[in-house]
């Protein structure tokens, strides 16, 4: 499955933006690991 995963795909970026936005609003730390952290 990893060959189908693209952390830079627009839908992945939108999801990440929503997650980070909600975390910031609620003062929750966010961290990334793996390919998305590069």
Description:
The protein is an all-alpha fold and 38 residues long. It has one domain (2-37). It has 1 helix and no strands. The protein has one helix spanning 10-25. The chain starts with 9 loop residues before the first helix and ends in a 13-residue tail after the last helix.
The total strand number stands at 0
Proportion in helices: 40-55%
What structural class results from the helix and strand content? mainly alpha
Q: Give the termini separation.
A: 19 Å
How many separate domains make up the residues? 1
Any idea what the shape is? elongated
Task: Calculate the mean pLDDT score and round it.
Answer: 87
Instruction: List low-confidence stretches.
Output: none
What radius of gyration results from the CA coordinates?
11 Å
Question: Strand portion, in percent?
Answer: under 5%
| Main β-sheet description | none
Count of individual helical segments: 1
Order of helices and strands: H
